[in-house]
Structure formats: C-alpha cells, structure tokens
Amino acid sequence: MCAFASGHGSSLPSPCESGGDCDTISSVPSPFSDRPSLLDIPHAATIPADRAQDGAPESAARMNAVSSRRSTELAVANWDRYEVMGMVGEGGMGAVYKARDPRLNRLIALKFLRSHDVGLVEHFFREAQAQARIDHPNVCKVYEVGEVAGHPYIAMQLIQGEPFGDAMRAMSLEQRVKVIRDVAEGLHEGHRTGLIHRDVKSGNILVERSQTGTLTPYLVDFGLAREIKGQDSTIFSVEGTPCYMSPEQVAGDLRQLDRRTDVYGLGATLYEALVGEPPFSGLPPLDVIWRVRTEQPRPVRDIDRRAPADLETITLKCLEKEPHRRYDSARALAEDLQRYLDGDPVRARRASFLYVAWSKARKHRIVLSLSLAALVALGAAGAVLMRSRISAAEQVRRAEEVAALAQEIGQDVKEMELFMRYAYALPLHDTTREKAVIHARLEDLERRIAASGERLGALAEGPGHYALGRGFLALGAIEEAVRHLELALVQGYDTPDATFAAGRARGMLYLRALDKARRLPSREAQEAQQAEMAREHLEPALRYLRSSVAGARAAMPYAAAVLALHEGRLDDAYVEGKRAVVVEPWSYEARVIQGDALRGRAVLAEERGEHEQALLDLHRAIAHYGEASAMATSDPAIYDAQAEAWLGVMRIDSHRGADLRGAYEQAIQACNQSLTAEPRRAAAAANKAWAHIHHGWSLYRQGEDPRAALQSAMKDAEQAMQWGGPDPLAYNSIGAACWLRAQYEAGIGLDTDEALGRAVESNRRAIEMDPNYGWAHNDIGIALGLLGERAAERGFDPLRHFSESAHHLDRAIALSPGDPTPRANQTWFYAQRAMHEMEHGVDPVPTLNRALAYAEAALAMRPEHVASHNNQGLAFTLLASHILTSGGDTRGPGDARGTLDRAIGAFEAALHLSPSDVEARRGLATARALLARVQLARGEDPAQALRAGRQALATTLATALDPSPTDGETLFTLAALERATAWAAASSGRNPRRPFQAAHDALSKAHALNPRSARPLATLASLHRDRAELSRPGGRADGDIAEGLQRIRAALELTPTMPAYRALQGSLLVLRARGARDPGVRMALYQQAREELQAALKGNRFLEREYGRWLAETELQLPAGEGTPASSGPQVRPAP
C-alpha cells in the first residue's frame, strides 16, 4: 500500500512509519526553549496555553478520528466509483483504504483527508497533482483526486510490500545497494518535476517481492514541511524523522531545503542499510537534532569493518553538514552507487584534511582549544597514542595559520578587485598599465604562497589558488582564472565564495563559446556546438554555482541572476539582475547580466522567426550595456558585449534587406572602444572583422564596392589571430572576405585567382582545426564554385572545381541539415554547371533538376530565404533558355513560357522579402527580356514584358550607367532588354536604331569595365550581327559586319574553345559573303563560314536551332563536294 503525505500536521498513515529506533516528530515545540542550542530554530512550533492540558489534545484527536472514520465509511458504502474493501491504515489526518477500481479491474489505495479546511484541502489536492506528474517505476503512482460526499480523496497505486527497514534484514549487501540506487533514480525524477520529499527514510521505501524473487522498491509520501493554518494560530511544521533529517532541516529553515536535503535522507538510509541503524539513533529527538547539527556521524567502518570503503565514502558524502559538499543530485548518487556495483572507482572523495581542520578552527575554536589543553595535560602526565601522523596541537596550529593566511590573501583579493574597479571607472583609456600592476601583485602573491607552502605544505595551496583565480578573473584572463579556482577546489578550499567564483568563470567561458556557436550556419550546428560546450563548461559552472547557494554571496540577487542566466532561465535572470541593481546600485555587472539575458532572448526570438521581437530585445540589451559602460568606462568586456549585440542587429537587418550602415557604425565604435581599453584584445578584433564582412556583403548586394570593408575585415581577423592564436572562425572570416572580394572583382574584370586561392586555403585551415565547422565547408564550397565559373569563362574544364564545391556544400548540409544557406549555394553552382553543359552540348536538364531540388528544400525550411528564391529563379531562367535554344515547344504546358512564369514568380518573391535586392531585380529583368523573345516568336506583343523588365531594373541603373560603372551584370541585363526592344520594333516595322544603340552603349561600358572577359566582346559581336541583318539597303551593314568580326575574333583569342563564339563568327562570315562582289572571295568566305559553323554545331548540338539556317546557306552556296572536312570541333581545355 502506498500512502501520500499531505504535508499538513501529522502525515497520513503509511505502514513505513512503524518500527525503527528513531521517533517521528511533526514539530519542535517551544517548552524545550531552555535548550540554548535550539533558540536559533526560526520556525519552532508553539502550543497555545489552553491546549497544554495533560491528555486533552490526545483524547480529542482520538474522538475526532473515530467520528471521521464513521462518516467516511458511511459516505463510501454505496459508492459506484470504487469498491472499498477495508481500511489498511489510519492517522490523525485521515485514513487509507484498500479498494478496487471496477472500470479498470485493478486494486488501488484510497486516501481520505479528514479535515474540511479549505486551504488544507487545496494543498492536499495540489500535492496529489504534483506527485501525479512523477512517472517513474520506483515512485508510487497517483491515479486520481476527487471528493465523495464532501470527503476529499486520492486514488493511488496499491503496493504489496514491506518497509525497507524490515525487508533489508533478508537482503544481501548488493540487494540493499540496488534498492538505494533505484530509489535515488525515482527521487531524482521527483526533483526534476519540482518536488522535494523532505522525509526520505527506510520507512518511506516499500519493497515489493515478485513471485520470481525480484525486488522492486517504491518511494512513497512526497511533500512535507508546509504551512498549516489553524483557527487560533499558525504553526510551521518541520516534519520528518530526526535521525534522517539534514542539518538545515532540523534548523527549521524551510528556505534552505532543496534536493540535497533528500540526498542527506537517502544517505542516512544507506547508512542504516550498512550498519543496521541510521545515524544518531537510540537518542531522544532533541538530542538527535543537536548531534545532527554539530557532530559527524560515526564512520561506517568503525561500526562494521566488513563494510566496503567505497560505500562508506559514498555515505559520508551524502551526510555532509554543508549541502554544497553533498552529491548535487540524487542521480549523481545513483550513478556513484552503480559504479560501486560495476566495480568501477567511485567519484566521491573523503573530506580533505584542510577542510576538516578549517571547519574545526572556524566553528569550534573553543572546543579545539580545550581539547588541545587537555591533550597537553595528558601529555605531561604520560604518553598519548595518536592515530594520525600530525598531533592535535599541530593540526590546530596549522589550521589557525591557514586561517590567518586565508584572511591575508582575502584582503589581497579585495584590494586587487577594488583596484581594477577603479581603473575601469576612469574615463576610457588603455588599462595595460593597471593590469601590469595586478600581474606584478599576482607574482608577489605566488611567491608568498610558495614561502607559506614550505611551512604549511598543501594547506596553503587552496587559499593561494583561490586568490590567484580571483585576481585573474578581475583581469579578464578567464582561462587562467578557471585553472586556479578549480585547483583551489581540488585542494579542498571550497568555500561558497570560491565555488561561486569558479562557477562564474566557467560560465564566462561558456557564454564566450556560445557567442561563437551562434555564428554557425544553422540551428543544428549551433545546438551541437552548444551541447559540447555545455559538457565542457556549463555543467561544471552550474554545479559550482548551485553548490554556492549556502554562502553569503550566493544569497544576493546578482548570484541568483548569474545562476538563472546559465540555467537558461533568461526571464528570471533579467528580473534578478534588476533586483541586483536595486540592492547594489553601484554594480555595473548586474546591468551586464540584464543585457546578456535580453541578448539571449533575442537569439531565441530570431530562431522562431520573430525578428521584430529579436530587434527589440537587442536594442534593450544595448541600452543596458550602455548603462554599464557609463559606470565602467574602461572595461573592454562591456564593449565586446555591445558589439555582439550590434552584430545581431546587422545579421537580422541583412536578412530583411534593411540598411546596415547605422548598426555597422555602432558595432565598429564598440569594437574600437574595447581596443582602446585593451589594445591587443583578440575578441574585439574578431568582432570588428565580422562587422566589416556584414557591411561588405550589404554593399555588394546593393551594387556598391565592398573592397575597403573586406580588406579591413581580413586585417582585423589576422590581428585577432596574432593576439589570440589560430582560430577557425578567424580563418573562416578571412576566407569569406576573400571570396566576396573575388566575386566583386570578377565583375569589373580583375584577376580573381589570388583571392579565390586564399579563400580556399583559409577555409581549409579552418576545417583542419575543426572538421565539423559547417560555415567553413560552405565557404570553401563557394570559393571552389567560383573557381569553376572562372575556369568555364576562360574555356577550361570547370567540372573538377564544381565537383569539389558540391562535395563541401553537401558536407555543410550534413552538418547543418536545418540551414537553407548551403542548399541555396548548391542551387547556384549546379545552375552554373548547367550553363557550362548548355554551352558544350550536354543535356543540362538533370543538373537543373538537382539545382531546383536544392532550392525547393531550402525554401521548405525557410520560405523567407531571399538567396534561395533568387537562385531558384536563375535555374528556371536557364531551363527556359535551354528550351528555346534546343527547339522545345513554346506552347506546351511545360514550355519556355510556363518555365519563365515560375522564374518570374521566384524573383518577385525575393523582391517582396527584400525590395532593394539587386540580384532579384536583375534576375527579374533578365526573365522579362527572355519572355519578350518568347512572345515575339509566338507573334505576341512583348511591350508589357519589356516595361516590367525596365521597371525591375530601374533602381540599379543609376549605378550601372554612372561614368565609373561598378555593376557589369546590370549592364548585360539592360543590353538584353534593349535588344529585345529592337527586335520588337523591327518586327512591327519601326526603326530599331535607338534601342540597338542603347544596347551597344551598355555593352561597351561592360567591356570597358571588364576588358579581359570574352563575354562582352561576344555579346557586342552578336549585337552587330543582328543590326547588320536588320539594316535596310544603303545602311551600315558592312561596318557592323566588320566590327562584329573584330569583336568575335578578340573573344575567341580569350576563349578559343567556346562553340557559340565560333558559330557567331560563322554567321558574320555568311553576312560578309553575301555582300562580296568577287565570286572567288564570296566562295572562300562561305567555305570559311561552313567550317566554323560545322565545328561549332559539333561542339554544341543545341546551336542547331539558331545556326542551322546559316549552315544551310553555306551548303546551298558551295558546289557539292567542295570544301574541306569540318574540323573535330572545339575541345574544352583542361583546367590549369
């Protein structure tokens, strides 16, 4: 049978409360207040004078119980919900009955509460509902709560077992340990749901034995120590069984009770399982309370030498007086017990000599002094046998000397920290000189500690490392601080201040790593990195911070804010930080905590797509950092936090297509302020590099020159590594700056090989340092893809570069499966590969289908991803162009027109998300120009498509037509629109001269911008051919033909293997042959034209539709059999 404790007054009955040597108490009454040791129990119960008559309360309670039982039995006599089979236990607060649930045909236990007090009934139900949340095979299950005829009840699991205190007599040691282990797991589950048991003991563990002999323990009766409201007074019940109660529990301070209180109770139960009785058993309750608070329990192996030493160590760790020295959780206890059962070394360690001596010197100096005097007297009278190597007198002397050293070192710590606070409070300046003073002080401190170590040995090491750790923490040297603070803890110097400082330092390392993780390309990559950093930094930080709650520092709101921040309770961290500002208005650190909490909330809001909320939190965080920096004007860490927040604003605004200049200037200013305070600060240089990269990308997307920003980014990233050592993020930032610079410079005709080579090399180094760094794989994929594009432009084979690019981008996708960016990049480079295939007669449809599949996957993840919409539009545009050039049906459902509509839809979606996006506007205009060609081929009016194309391009034309143009792609797009306009004019009988001239001007500017590119030359040649073909008699056809041939020959010198260029040259030769008066010259020109056209069509079969008529003309003009065989056609040169 399982009983559930109400937590009010005497607990409801459970068979586990019978037996044992230790009495159960429900409160500490005031008649014993003549015991001075109990005067500090804050919630000791009082008994009103009118209830203190001998025997009266007991008889009244008995009469009330009988009356209530009869009332309950009458209420359930004809109850249709449960069949009550009889009472199995009764107490002052109620009774428990065995019953059957007819609906589920199972036996249950029914607990009835006698009291009708509204507050008590509400508490009764709340406790039941809370325990019902616990779902664990070793915790009694609660099925239902309700009322019948005004009687509150709880239906719960019926357990056919006996209390562990009785059952253990028939168990082996291993079985007893397994019971404690299983109960610890169940207890941990209760703690996880927010419940604390408060009365863990052998009587509240029921052990059920199956028919096969398998033992299953159940923990019963969660939830004691609650406020009970009576008619005449309010009594605070400190319930439990004294010899299982923790020191903080017997003190009656309910605020100090947490999961470690239950760990103590389970440790006392383990103690009982090892020696047969709990600690301090057999004494009156108040004597037990005194000893629980002031004395260590007798060691297990002093009672029974057969007890394993590891189990004694585990037990004594559970029974530590100070909660932070116990196991941090019941699960940690269970895991150590499992290690014992597995034969592995346990994690628990005996208290160090330093700690024991320090505790005695601090808490019992009078007792120790008297003991020392007695020992001296005994020594004068005769010999004293000592079981330790060091005499008691020597222990006291050393303890006192250690105490004096700790006091002296503590003063040093305060002076160093105060000195740095003064330095930070001065107007913004270089703090190098002040930090040098502290470094010198730390060196002196190390020498003094070493000298003390010659006298005290290891006793001086703990306080010494603590002082050094605090000093390095004041300097912001977090790694060194962590090293020394954790060495202090290892040496046994684990005061609350020391554990709090260690937790704060470890937490700083975690937050620093978290900021780096947030720059990873996807939530999955971020979560993987965060999980690794949590294991390395967060878990120990939380362990230290939680264990420091017993100290004075930990009781302050600032410490609570730090703990909440690291536990991810960001709202609580902000509130506690706000409280800390009220309590300590001079604390700028509290304002930093508020900013950190808001910045963490912004990250979560951004992940949910709530960009407005994220921006609001970021700007609020920046305001708090501003308040902190106004108080500590020279603390560089505050400016680092400000810069991180501004980088977050830039990242969000960049996705939204907003102007980044304001945020960029603020981020750079914060970085510069940090570098003023600490001129060699690697974090500030790294933040500055990323601010430049965000700004450069924004400039590039707007058609502006990003090179100055990118050059600054590379310089700052290199500086960060010079000051802080090699770092994959820094290498990645250099690589990103290089490929972005190459992308821009390719558009203005500069050689990009060096920049792309450096981009590849930098990202390779980042991958060598971190093979799972997704951004590095993404960016090296971009750089390799761009190398493939450049190779294709110059007539080299680009497939090796494209394949390697795809490999790295797929790796980035595998590392970041929820991030659309690498998929968007795959779309782009598969589109570029398809373009190369189209130019060399290879069917591009499979490659374009892969490109579109990547785009669809990216948009399914993030529909607002602008680059994915743009790249999807590019792939559809190329597919439509292939349908046109290969002779596809332009009227079918899957024709060029339908494909172009999908391209236009993709670009319009991008523009809806980012109205200023240049790529979207160019892509939309290009698709509209191609649509005009389709409409002309179908005899439709293309005017509307051409107007829409011009409108899309309007905002980028001002830059493109500037005397110093910086956007070659916009010029090509404009030329395409003007050529389509010229053909439309010619088809309607109008003069196409003006649009032809406008196209010529745009292409001439593009050529001037990039004179090393064959593309503008070939496009100009094509324009001259069109204009010559459409020239009226007496026009300037000869001039256009001559200029066209000149342009195409120049293009072939740059890219001799491009089939389309040879076909274009062949068509121009046909036009020249038409005008030749000399028959021999005419035949020679036709012969040359046929050779060029045959070679071109052999190199690219898709040219047949456009150039077949030109080749047919040469065949008609040349006599049968005349001419030389066509060459084998152009060959793609291997990539250099």
From TrEMBL:
Pfam families: Pkinase (PF00069). Residues 82-341 form the Protein kinase domain. One of its GO terms (molecular function) is ATP binding. The keyword Transcription does not apply. ATP binds at K111. Residues 1-20, 48-67, 1116-1136 are annotated as: Disordered. Transmembrane segments: none annotated. Gene3D superfamilies: Phosphorylase Kinase, domain 1 (3.30.200.20), Tetratricopeptide repeat domain (1.25.40.10), Transferase(Phosphotransferase) domain 1 (1.10.510.10). InterPro entries: Kinase-like_dom_sf, Prot_kinase_dom, Protein_kinase_ATP_BS, Ser/Thr_kinase_AS, TPR-like_helical_dom_sf. Keywords: ATP-binding, Kinase, Nucleotide-binding, Transferase. This is Protein kinase domain-containing protein. It comes from Chondromyces apiculatus DSM 436.
